[in-house]
Amino acid sequence: MSTEIATAPLSKSGVWTARAMSGLAIVFFAMDAGIHIAKPTPVVEAFEKLGYPIGAAVGIGLLELICLITYVIPRTAILGAVLITGVLGGAVSTQLRAGGTPFETYIFPFIVGVLVWGSLWLRDSRLRDVLPVRR
What we know:
single chain
């Protein structure tokens, strides 16, 4: 007797929704990692405002890049989503400590988290089995 839950296949629009959501999250993280590594003036000013040494920027950028690569590889996408969630948690903590606006402290990280996990939930039936949405 099998204990697996049968999940309906994703519709064509669901597949494209998942791709779009994932694409937005990937573009955001790739750009964020890139600017941390490149350290343009706005990043230097932001690090100063947040109270972090600018020397940490490259390490943060590389960490984001590793998390992103882990997320992009289908076999490790769930691990990548967990790692990205950790990065977002660190961003929330930093913004909260620095007195960031509600958008940069809560709303934007929540949106990115929904894009990451929502796209993964849509494209991976195993995740839909573990976290089902019931009517």
